[in-house]
Design a protein that fits this description.
This protein is α/β, with parallel strands linked by helices. 38% of the residues lie in helices and 18% in strands. Helix 9 (258-271) runs parallel beside helix 10 (289-302). The longest helix has 29 residues, at 203-231. The protein binds adenosine-5'-diphosphate (ADP) and magnesium ion.
């Protein structure tokens, strides 16, 4: 078989030697194919130049103008020479300055017109442009690609390599998308798409190219994620069928919500299916996820299996331990805690109980992951607050059993479109109903001027016996400085804002024991006010806390604010949340307005997605999701659902994509998932 020309090493291209190849390698480009997939991040649109008059200083413009005079080379100092080119378009004149490039200056001929692209400076009377990109005006209407670069590569180099690379694409032979798919979805061929994504003949052609490539990318992503899902569907011997849950239900102090009942049913369905559960339980703060996990752990216990629940922090683990042991131990379900701060002896005791099967439920932190933690018969694994754990950790925990059922609980409501992608390898259950009698937290946005009134309001709550959170954000870069400012803030609160009340402080730099003490004091009511950085975010439960004030609210994402706010409003009292932000931006005002208007986490998540893009939801890239190059999950939702439908159809027919016409799709999946070695799809 003849060698695929696209697999040629990048050094095969003109002008690419060892050095440039090394630069390309840093961008992940090693062969002609990967170069062609290096899409422009932007275009300079030379098709709509403005007149010099219109090109207001301070912005970047394309100007069409004629050279009428050129200065001689001026040597400013050693190693710096300057060429001044005077251009006009009959509305006004402009001075173009070129540094250190006799070649570029000489290329500009007097009397000829060019398109100049660059930032315009100067003033109304005297426009200037330094080191512009220049194009001969006769080229007509074109869009020039602007590539992501790295040290040692210029846009010109990449463009010229790209031109040559495109000549390797002779015909449609290299198209990975089968013809019938292209036809039914009105997508252009790969040759046309790559040509027009790099050097568009018009804006419309660029759009068509982008649509085709984005569709391909979405389709590939969906196919890969679905395959991951299928791969996890090997059978398990952990069978839990028709467990009697009535003792559990009758010991609850409240009636479960319908959503909770439904989610428990969905989990029980997995339990008896013979295939391991791999399920995400999504629910707003306070929706009662823990009870769903508890019911299922109890079901596992009835069938003779052990369960484990892992939380991201000790505070949270201890809280879960308290809730679960109080609820389940009376039902005969011995529960142990396993966290780092326990003594060696305590830990050994807990581990012993798990290994011999005396304990049926383990609650803890990362300490659970240690090799020395063994289970006699682990059947059900729960992780709380998904975004803090990586896939690898989840897997490590599951490996302590033999294909146990896995439930992932997330308190971050994620817009449906994203959830389907981010959690593509999981089934999803949604708790979309809050327990009865919850009053939505009243939320206000105030500026600095109303600060005193806000503290007055808080003091009144404290006098009624309630407690308050004061949230003070820490920014990463400057922790030391910030910390002193949090300490100062505390002093101010104690002396000026809320004198006479007991105040505690909680932040990330404290030792676990210290944090624990503060939390316990607050939970027990010994502290009335808790000043905290965002550590408090992950789920502590103090029902008596009825008011929260958030400083610099503009620094938080909406979903984060929503998480924080969820710490109040857990008791019977009407609660309040005060967002302090003097930031005047229109977008900020709109964001905070959303918080005041709704308490529905899914609505807030949708807004967050619209306002800030999907970045926040993807967090620290722990979702095991490959990065997309061209498709945009927020802008292209239509295309995304089109691709999803197609992926489902394709996989229904050919689950492993083994048929010859799907060979190309298989290649695409492999390419995309190469970024994620642990996926095993490459
Ligand atoms: P989250 O989903 O935020 O983890 P939790 O499981 O911590 O929520 O539950 C929040 C609070 O609501 C807890 O105090 C819990 O006991 C209580 N709760 C859970 N389910 C119900 C219910 N059906 N009715 C009343 N209270 C409930
Ligand atoms: Mg929780």
């Amino acid at each position: 078989m003849e060698k695929d020309p696209l697999k040629q090493d990048i050094r095969y291209l003109k002008g690419v030697g060892e050095k440039r190849a090394a630069c390309y390698a840093r961008l992940g480009i090693t062969d002609v194919y990967s170069l062609l997939r290096h899409y422009p991040r932007n275009y300079i649109d030379y098709s709509n130049p403005v007149s010099i008059m219109e090109a207001s200083p301070g912005e970047t413009w394309v100007v069409r103008a004629r050279v009428f005079k050129k200065s001689r080379e001026q040597r400013i100092r050693k190693g710096l020479s300057v060429f001044k080119i005077f251009v006009t378009d009959d509305t006004a004149d402009m001075t173009v300055t070129i540094f250190n490039s006799r070649f570029a200056a000489e290329a500009l001929k007097e009397g000829e017109s060019y398109l100049f692209y660059g930032k315009v400076t100067g003033n109304l009377l005297r426009r200037e442009m330094n080191s512009p990109q220049v194009l001969r005006a006769v080229h007509g209407a074109v869009m020039q690609p602007v590539y992501p670069l790295t040290d040692g590569l210029t846009n010109k180099m990449v463009s010229s390599n790209m031109e040559q690379a495109l000549t390797f694409l002779k015909d449609g032979r290299n198209d990975y998308l089968p013809v019938d798919i292209r036809e039914s979805h009105r997508l252009c061929g790969i040759v046309e798409a790559l040509q027009n994504i790099h050097f568009p003949s018009s804006a419309a052609a660029q759009q068509e190219a982008k649509r085709r490539l984005a569709f391909e990318e979405f389709l590939t992503l969906q196919l890969g994620m679905s395959q991951l899902k299928l791969r996890n569907r090997k059978s398990t011997s952990v069978l839990i069928s028709e467990p009697d849950l009535s003792p559990f239900f009758s010991s609850l102090p409240f009636e479960l919500t319908n959503a909770q009942k439904r989610c428990i049913e969905e989990g029980l369905g997995d339990f008896e299916s013979g295939v391991p559960m791999n399920r995400l339980l999504q629910g707003d703060v306070g929706s009662g996820k823990t009870m769903v996990a508890a019911a299922l752990a109890y079901a596992a216990f009835r069938a003779g299996y052990q369960s484990v629940l892992m939380a991201p922090t000790e505070i949270l683990a201890k809280q879960h331990y308290k809730t679960l042991s109080e609820l389940l131990e009376p039902l005969g379900c011995k529960t142990v805690l396993l966290v780092g701060s326990m003594t060696a002896k305590q830990k050994a005791g807990a581990r012993e109980a798990l290994a011999c099967g005396n304990a049926v439920l383990a609650v803890g932190t990362h300490a659970l992951l240690q090799e020395s933690t063994e289970f006699q018969n682990l059947g059900f694994v729960v992780t709380d607050e998904q975004h803090r754990f990586g896939v690898a950790q989840r897997t490590r925990l599951a490996e302590k059993g033999e294909r146990p059922h896995i439930l992932v609980m997330s308190a971050t409501p994620i817009p449906r479109t994203l959830a389907l992608i981010i959690y593509g390898d999981l089934d999803v259950s949604v708790l979309d109903e809050l327990p009865k009698g919850r009053k939505p937290v009243e939320t206000y946005h105030i500026g600095e001027s109303k600060r005193e009134r806000a503290y007055g309001f808080i003091a009144k709550q404290l006098d009624k016996g309630r407690q308050a959170f004061l949230i003070c954000p820490l920014i990463e870069e400057n922790k030391e400085l910030q910390l002193t400012s949090v300490e100062e803030y505390r002093k101010k609160v104690e002396k000026v804002y809320l004198p006479g009340y007991t105040v505690g402080i909680l932040h990330g730099k404290q030792k676990p024991a210290e944090k624990q003490k503060v939390m316990e004091d607050f939970a027990a009511g010994r502290l009335q006010v808790l000043i905290s950085t965002t550590v408090v975010e992950v789920g502590i439960d103090v029902p008596n806390a009825s008011v929260m004030l958030i400083e610099n609210a503009e620094r938080f994402g909406l979903s984060q604010l929503h998480q924080l706010r969820g710490r109040v409003g857990r008791g019977a009292e009407q609660s309040a949340c005060i967002l302090v932000s003097s930031h005047r931006g229109e977008e900020n005002r709109r964001r905070l307005e959303v918080m005041c208007r709704t308490s529905d986490g899914f609505v807030i998540a949708e807004e967050d997605l619209k306002l800030r893009g999907p970045g926040d939801f993807f967090g620290e890239r722990q979702h095991g999701l490959p990065k997309l190059k061209i498709a945009d999950m927020v802008q292209d939702t239509r295309l995304l659902s089109e691709a999803r439908e197609l992926a489902e159809e394709l996989l229904a027919e050919d689950p492993q994509l083994t048929s010859p016409e799907h060979r190309g799709l298989r290649v695409l999946v492999r390419e995309l998932f190469r970024q994620i070695p642990e996926s095993g799809l490459h």
